[in-house]
Specification:
Helix 2 packs across helix 3, helix 8 packs antiparallel against helix 11 and helix 20 runs antiparallel to helix 24. The longest helix is centred in the first third of the chain and has 21 residues. With 536 residues, the protein is α/β, with parallel strands linked by helices. The strands form 4 sheets. The chain has a 5-stranded parallel beta sheet. It has a 3-stranded antiparallel beta sheet with strand order 5-6-7, with no helix packed on it. A two-stranded antiparallel ribbon has the order 4-8. The protein is elongated. The chain is built from 24 helices and 12 strands. Among the domains are: 138 residues, HUPs (Rossmann fold); 79 residues, no CATH class; 145 residues, Arc Repressor Mutant, subunit A, CATH 1.10.10. Strand 9, helix 11 and strand 10 form a beta-alpha-beta unit. Helix content is 48%, strand content 10%.
C-alpha cells in the first residue's frame, strides 16, 4: 500500500486522523473526549444546527450546516461511530414582523404574534407560513446534498418529544429564573417567565408572568391579554419556551452532543448551558465561529441586506468554492462580498489539483477532503478562473463558444466534453465579468517609461512562435520590466493590467498571453500605444 492508495485501510486512516491538524479534526477530537473513548448509550452521536423559520434560508444557514457536516465527517473518520445530524426548525416561534420579501403582507399583519405554523401561508402553497419556510429549508439543504434529519419545533412540542424536558423546567422553575433574571432589565424581569403561554383566545404567544404553577399537574396559570385567567398544561403545544430556555431544553431533550454558534451568541451559549445542566442534561460541545463582514468591513445583517446571498454566489461560482470559503479560517472575521469569489474559485481548484499528488497525511489537511466528505472528485482544468475573466475582458467575449476558441488553441484537444467543469466555469466567468469586472474597468494612458517598455515587449513577443509556452513568455515579461528599471517589479505588472485590461491586478501575464494568443496580445499593446479606447 502506498501513501497515495485511494483504498487506504480505515484503521490507518483513523490513526492519521488522530494526528491531523485541520480544524474539523481538532473539533472531532474535542468531541471524542466527551465520551471517554466509549460510544454513547443512545447508540449515536448527535450533531445539531438550528434554523429560524421566520425567514428564508441564507448563506449563514449554509455555512453552519456545511461546517457542522465537516466536523461530523471528521468525527466518523476518527471513530467509526454512528452519527446523526438534526436540522432543527424553530417553526413555533412567533411572527414578530412581516418580512419585506413575501406576498399578502396585509394578511400576515393580522397574524403578528402567532406561531409560524399557525399562520396562513402568504404564498398559498402550504398549510402554514412555517410549513412553507420549512419546505424551502429542506429544498435548500437537499440542493447541496446534505445528509440530515429535519425536526420541527411544533411537532416536538405537540408530539410529546419535549414533555419530560418541559416538566423539568416547571420543576426547576426558580433555578431557571435565577439564571436568567440577572441579565434582564428591571421592567422585563417583572413579566419574564421561562414559559410563553399561547392564548386560547387569540392564538398569540404571550410575554406574561405566571400567576401560578402546579408541578404535579404539569400546568401553569396566566392572564390572557384581556385579563381572563387560564390554566394550561406545559405539554401538548400549549406553551413555547423563551428562546434561551428553548435552546437548553432542546439540548437536554434530544441529547445533542455538538452544535456551533456565531460569536454574537457566546453569552447565550453560556446561559443555555447552565440551564441545560439544571434540567439534568449535558450541554453539547461547541464551536464559536466569527461573523461575516460586508465590503465596508461592517457586520452582515439580514435586515440591512448588506451581504451576498446564496443565489448571488451560485450565479458566479460553484457551491464547492463557497464550501471552501466557509472552511477557511472560521474563527476569523472575513469579508463576504462579491470580490472574494474569483480567489475562492481558483483556490478550490488549486487544492483539488494538489490532492492528486499528496500523501494521506497531507490529504487530511487539504480542504477538498472536508468539502467532499472524503470522496474527492478528479477534475482537471487547463485554465484558471482568473485567466478566464481576463480573457473575457481582453477578447470582449460574448459567449462560451468564443472562449472555447481561445482555449482550444491554447490546449489542443480541449473541448466542453473533455472539460465539462471548465464549460460551467465559463458561464460563471461571463456573468461575473458582465456584473462586476466590466463596470469597474478603468483604462489609463501609459507613462513615457511604460510606453517604451510596452513597445519593447511587443517587439519581443513578435519574434516568438505562437506555441511558445506560458513560462517562457513570463520570463520575457520579467526581463522587459527589469531592463526598463521597474522597481519593484510589481509596478510593471500593474502597468500591464491597468493599461491593457483596465484593472490593477490579474493572473500571471505569461499565462494570459499564451491563452489570448501572442498575435492578439501584440495587437492589444499597439492599440494601447496608439491611444485607442480598449474598453470600447
Amino acid at each position: 500500500m502506498t501513501d497515495h492508495d485511494e483504498n487506504i485501510d480505515p484503521r490507518q486512516l483513523r490513526a492519521l486522523a488522530h494526528e491531523a491538524k485541520a480544524w474539523p479534526f481538532e473539533e472531532a477530537r474535542k468531541l471524542l473526549r466527551r465520551f471517554d473513548g466509549k460510544p454513547p448509550e443512545k447508540g449515536h452521536v448527535l450533531f445539531e444546527t438550528g434554523y429560524g423559520a421566520s425567514g428564508l434560508p441564507h448563506i449563514g444557514t449554509f455555512g453552519e450546516v456545511v461546517r457542522t457536516s465537516m466536523v461530523r465527517h471528521a468525527f466518523e473518520t476518527l471513530t467509526g461511530w454512528p452519527t446523526r445530524l438534526v436540522c432543527f426548525s424553530d417553526d413555533m416561534d412567533a411572527l414578530r414582523k412581516v418580512p419585506d420579501n413575501v406576498p399578502n403582507r396585509d394578511m400576515l399583519t393580522e397574524h403578528l404574534g402567532r406561531p409560524l405554523t399557525r399562520i396562513p401561508d402568504p404564498f398559498g402553497t402550504h398549510e402554514s407560513f412555517g410549513a412553507h419556510n420549512n419546505a424551502r429549508l429542506k429544498a435548500f439543504l437537499d440542493r447541496f446534498g446534505f445528509d440530515y434529519e429535519f425536526f420541527s419545533a411544533t411537532e416536538c412540542y405537540s408530539s410529546g418529544r419535549f414533555d419530560a424536558a418541559l416538566r423539568a423546567i416547571l420543576a426547576h422553575y426558580d433555578e431557571v429564573m435565577a439564571v436568567v433574571l440577572p441579565i434582564l432589565g428591571e421592567e422585563r424581569r417583572r413579566s419574564w417567565s421561562p414559559f410563553l403561554p399561547i392564548s386560547p383566545k387569540t392564538g398569540r404567544i404571550l410575554q406574561v408572568p405566571l400567576e401560578d404553577r402546579d408541578i404535579k399537574a404539569g400546568t401553569v396559570t396566566f392572564r390572557d391579554e384581556d385579563g381572563e385567567l387560564f390554566t394550561v398544561p406545559v405539554t401538548g403545544g400549549h406553551v413555547k419556551c423563551q428562546w434561551r430556555v428553548d435552546w437548553a431544553m432542546r439540548w437536554a431533550a434530544l441529547g445533542v452532543d455538538y452544535e456551533m454558534a456565531g460569536k454574537d451568541l457566546i453569552d447565550s451559549v453560556r446561559l443555555s448551558s447552565r440551564i441545560c445542566r439544571i434540567l439534568g442534561g449535558r450541554p453539547p460541545e461547541g464551536f464559536i465561529y466569527e461573523l461575516f463582514l460586508d465590503e465596508k468591513g461592517e457586520k452582515i445583517s439580514k435586515s440591512k441586506g448588506n451581504g451576498i446571498s446564496i443565489e448571488d454566489w451560485l450565479r458566479y461560482a460553484s457551491p464547492e468554492s463557497l464550501s471552501l470559503f466557509m472552511y477557511q479560517s472560521p474563527r476569523r472575521a472575513k469579508r463576504l462580498y462579491f470580490d472574494v469569489i474569483p480567489k475562492a474559485v481558483d483556490d478550490y481548484y488549486r487544492h483539488l489539483a494538489a490532492w492528486r499528488t499528496q500523501d494521506w497525511p497531507a490529504r487530511l489537511e487539504n480542504p477538498v477532503w472536508h468539502i467532499h466528505g472524503g470522496d474527492v472528485p478528479e477534475v482537471e482544468l487547463p485554465v484558471s478562473f482568473a485567466l478566464l475573466l481576463n480573457l473575457v475582458s481582453a477578447a470582449h467575449a460574448p459567449d462560451r463558444r468564443t472562449l472555447w476558441g481561445f482555449v482550444e488553441r491554447y490546449a489542443p484537444g480541449a473541448s466542453p466534453e473533455r472539460y465539462p467543469e471548465l464549460d460551467r466555469l465559463m458561464v460563471h466567468a461571463l456573468a461575473y465579468y458582465e456584473d462586476f469586472v466590466k463596470p469597474a474597468k478603468r483604462f489609463r494612458v501609459p507613462t513615457e517609461k511604460e510606453r517604451e517598455a510596452l513597445a519593447d515587449l511587443a517587439e519581443r513577443l513578435t519574434a516568438l512562435s505562437p506555441e511558445t509556452p506560458a513560462e517562457e513568455i513570463q520570463n520575457i515579461v520579467y526581463e522587459v520590466g527589469k531592463v526598463h528599471g521597474f522597481e519593484p517589479l510589481r509596478d510593471w505588472f500593474r502597468a500591464l493590467y491597468e493599461v491593457l485590461l483596465g484593472q490593477s491586478q490579474g493572473p500571471r501575464f505569461g499565462g494570459f498571453v499564451a491563452l489570448y494568443g501572442i498575435d492578439n496580445t501584440v495587437r492589444l499593446i499597439r492599440r494601447a500605444l496608439e491611444g485607442e479606447d480598449l474598453g470600447a
